[in-house]
Write a structure and sequence with these properties.
With 576 residues, this protein is an alpha/beta fold. It is built from 12 helices and 35 strands.
Length: 576
């Protein structure tokens, strides 16, 4: 089945496969023996991804007071946010009761605006942190991290700073999608690396810099697609003595020098051979950055997943569709984001974790089941808009709400698939984006679908304007050479050379730069992260032909890219 995207700013054609329809039939909920079928999506997979990501704020943090304890804290929500926000320990305390905010559903009104009213008053958790966070106050969407600062989407990492999507890392700074690595700087999409700088899509490499697509290499520089090599420069083999002689004049500790080396690396990558997708130990997959997956299609940054489609940033998920961020033992999840830890049958929901089952249209609910349109519940069941019902009452009322939502869906406005108005709120869609508690430019939607302010406002997204004070300072001169930087620099406020925004260098960070011999960055963290995102391919697929055998392939390397794209078989024959 082919449809046109209902988003008026897109209108792209997209396919709905028989497998998609079978999945929707499988996850459609049953009440009193009757299945409430979920209709096919009205907007394309890209717009559905964008809509979900508009509910995920990873890196925008603010100082504010807890609305329960009145203590200062770090939160995803600024002080002037219209939402009630509690510190993590206060949110989990018994000093408030989510059911006290319960209200009866009004069947004469659209459902989603009622849900939005509930979201405004039920307390939200300041940060998303699970399990054993130690000395990691400025970290979000993280668990089991220690002595970390400004790292996001991270697990089991220690002494790491200014990084996104880390797992089991030590002493890593300015990294993106890096796992089981140590003493790494500016690594992207890499695994099991040690003492590496400016490397991309590498595995098990060490003591190297400016590599891409290399495996098992050590003491290499400016190399691509090498396997089990050492003492190479520009893919040319040297003896150890020749290698060290060639690099004798290379000074990575001076910023002006490293900028020239980065430009050289960028030129080197332009015409390199690349695999149609990055991944290993897969069966029937499509997307990019996929490992140990089976029957996983249109997926990005997914590991150990099976029978999934239109998914992003998942680990250990099974039989899911249109699902982003988390996983860990989840199955039968649809149109949901930020959900994890042994959840099942969770639909149209956000920020729900820890053994949830049969949740519909919920936000930040834990260990709950059979709930519809609820916020902030813990260990509850058979609730609607945070009001407690008996099982029989629940099974009687929910189909009436769905019927009302179906009626509105028969005559939707052009923008109804994305946002709330009097003619929207249809059954089978994710939470409308104007109920997101975040501005567009605070979220991951802006990372993967970047918009300018005017573009975002024209499409009715919210936008957070910059505080003029962010750029009102006299810049502190920043030494070009790390050896000329004193400890006093950590007391200064610096100014980003690109955006003009203020930023600081923390002592642990400065110690790291000195230990590996790289210059202090002259850009703020957000600008550095933005540049790292450009090193990844988009979360989108194009039809191309293998440059070697001519086989038709789907790849996230767009037709305008200069890299030479090989199918998986040709790449393996060429590189390994």
């Amino acid at each position: 089945m082919q449809k046109l995207c209902a988003n008026p700013w897109c209108k792209s054609p997209f396919d709905i496969s028989d497998a998609d329809l079978q999945f929707l039939e499988k996850v459609s909920p049953i009440f009193n023996g009757k299945k409430e079928l979920i209709p096919p999506p009205t907007i394309c997979p890209q717009c559905r991804m964008q809509r979900r990501l508009a509910f995920r704020n990873e890196r925008s943090l603010y100082k504010r007071t807890c609305d329960l304890t009145h203590r200062e804290m770090i939160a995803m929500y600024p002080e002037d946010s219209p939402y009630v926000v509690y510190a993590k320990d206060a949110w989990f305390s018994d000093k408030w009761d989510p059911l006290s905010y319960g209200r009866s559903v009004d069947l004469s009104r659209p459902f989603w605006p009622q849900f939005g009213e509930l979201m405004k008053v039920v307390p939200k958790m300041s940060l998303i942190q699970q399990a054993n966070m130690e000395n990691a106050e400025y970290c979000n969407r993280a668990s089991n991290d220690k002595n970390c600062y400004m790292i996001f989407t991270s697990n089991f990492s220690e002494d790491c700073y200014y990084s996104v999507h880390l797992t089991n890392c030590r002493n890593c700074v300015d990294c993106l999608n890096t796992h089981k690595s140590e003493r790494c700087y500016q690594t992207v999409d890499s695994y099991e690396c040690y003492d590496c700088r400016w490397v991309e899509s590498c595995k098990n490499c060490s003591n190297s810099a400016f590599l891409k697509g290399c495996t098992g290499c050590s003491n290499c520089m400016f190399c691509t697609n090498l396997t089990q090599k050492q003492f190479c420069i520009d893919n040319k083999q040297y003896s150890e003595e020749e290698y060290r002689s060639q690099l004798a004049g290379t000074t990575l500790h001076i910023r002006s020098t490293t900028e020239l080396l980065k430009k050289r690396f960028a030129e080197l990558k332009k015409n390199m051979i690349v695999r149609e997708y990055m991944g290993m130990v897969n069966e029937n997959v499509r997307g990019n950055y996929i490992d140990h997956c089976k029957n996983t299609l249109d997926a990005y940054e997914c590991r150990e997943c099976e029978d999934c489609r239109y998914t992003q940033s998942l680990v250990q998920a099974k039989d899911c569709m249109d699902y982003a961020s988390w996983g860990r033992g989840c199955e039968l999840i649809y149109e949901t984001i930020n959900c994890g830890y042994n959840c099942r049958n969770v639909l149209f929901s956000n920020e729900c974790w820890d053994s949830n089952t049969d949740l519909l249209c919920c936000n930040q609910c834990l260990n709950s089941s059979h709930c519809f349109g609820c916020c902030g519940l813990r260990y509850k069941q058979f609730c609607i808009l945070n009001k407690q019902y008996s099982e029989a009452e629940y099974n009687e009322l929910v189909p009436k709400i769905i019927k009302r939502m179906r009626g509105l869906a028969m005559n939707p406005s052009p923008s109804s698939a994305l946002r709330v108005n009097e003619a929207s709120g249809s059954w089978g869609e994710f939470i409308p984006t104007n109920l997101s508690p975040f501005a567009y430019n605070e979220t991951n939607a802006h990372d993967y679908f970047p918009l300018k302010r005017d573009e975002a406002l024209a499409q009715e997204w919210r936008w957070l304007d910059e505080d003029p004070k962010e750029k009102s300072l006299t810049p502190t001169p920043l030494p070009d050479d790390i050896t000329q930087v004193s400890d006093d620099l950590c007391e200064e406020i610096l100014q980003c050379s690109v955006t003009g925004k203020k930023y600081k260098i923390v002592p642990q960070e400065l110690s790291f730069y000195r230990s590996i011999g790289v210059p202090v960055p002259d850009k703020c963290f957000e600008q550095r992260q933005k540049e790292r995102f450009t090193l990844q391919t988009p979360r989108k697929l194009w039809n191309r032909k293998c440059a070697k055998c001519g086989k038709e392939i789907e790849t996230s390397f767009g037709p305008e890219r200069t890299e030479i794209v090989y199918c998986e078989n040709c790449y393996i024959k060429e590189v390994y």
